[in-house]
Design goal:
The chain contains 12 helices and 23 strands. By secondary structure, the chain is an alpha+beta fold.
Length: 484
Amino acid sequence: MSKIIRELEPRMIWNKFADLNAVPRASKKEERVIQFMLDFGNQLELETFKDGVGNVIIRKPATAGLEDRKMITLQSHLDMVHQKNNDTVFDFDTQGIQMYVDGDWVRAKGTTLGADNGMGVATIMALLESTEIPHPPLEALFTIDEETGMTGAMGLKEGVLQGDILLNLDTEEDDEIDIGCAGGVDVTATRTYSIETMPANHKAYKITVKGLKGGHSGMDIHRGLGNANKIVNRLLYNASLQTSIRICKIDGGSLRNAIPRESNAIVAIELTESFLADFNLWSETIKRELIITEPNLEIEINETTTPTGVISVDAQDKLLKALYAAPNGVYRMSASMPDLVETSNNIARVIVKDGNIKIGCLTRSSVNSAKMDLANALKSVFELADCKVELSGAYPGWNPNPDSAILKVLVSQYNTVFGTKPKVVACHAGLECGILGQNYPNMDMISFGPTIKGAHSPDERVSISSVQKFWKFTLEILKNSPKA
């Protein structure tokens, strides 16, 4: 199938994307892809180096006639979100992504595709390799660890970059030009609990929530998607009101920036005559609530092996109430930009086992004070449940600049090439521009990219026709870039 992908147009991009997707590149495990990029730049005999944290920088002189233009820094991140369906057998550490064509879309077989941000990386590689495309002086910045902490952007020192303009290729709608983004902070709640013997007259059951769409916890947070962690907690809370139920283990969600698609709970239940019927009623109620956004939601309850121990009653009661009370999803819409989410939270990870509870959230906002307000609200809820709460990994948003010179170039070229005006927007995702702008405050920044759907989930896909449009737009931008 890789051969079919390589024959798509523009071949320059798709060949580089296929090469890149053969290299495992999970966040915080980028050693191989860093070396891949260093080898790529050195083979082209371009100035190539790695900075102190692992970002790769490659520079290429202007083509004839464009030497008088401002240097453009093209930026994308090397890491990708590693997610797969439960029934997919795949080893991200050793295997390359298995891609296929589905109409106008390129997808992966049961895993994330890596179009976020692999399409940006591949585009930059194609520009660096080309000997025919007119362009100003180029500087490629390939950052690491964007998806789990943005440590590459945070660690980039002042004075490393030489560009005057930064084009971030990490936006996921081809008719949008992004001029702002949200900041974020990780909220992590932990506590211990005493393990007690499973009570008599209880049966062990496994509760499973699956089939949810998942998605990007910023870009998709407004879509009303189900959160597996919240659904499981709602079921357990309802059960606790009806009968004696004791939690043995919970394992829900995965990455902080992915809306949880699946969650499993092992519980001991003192069955009443109506419990299973009531459980099915609760399940059907939740399914009806989410039927439009989550038509494939599945909720199962099945007998399982008897657990060796259960959580203490007091710890369980506080856990269920805290998770029920903790805000999830859109918290506030922006008052300054129509249809923009200002502040949100994703209850991304819930782990209960072996005497330990860990809850991981990612709180986002384009307003720093609102971000910290919601983070403190979550902190308060979890502290009431006797948790220790840590706020970490905070990163700033990117304040929109509607008077940006490069924005005017992009709007003009888009209108010229496509005969219509683009949407100038800010997004609720965490682009690296806000962080990079701290050490490079005078760099004019913009973000755009091809249409990508379902990022951070196995439903991730990129539009073939959109990549063609994006490539054409990129070439026009470079050809018409501002003079120094």
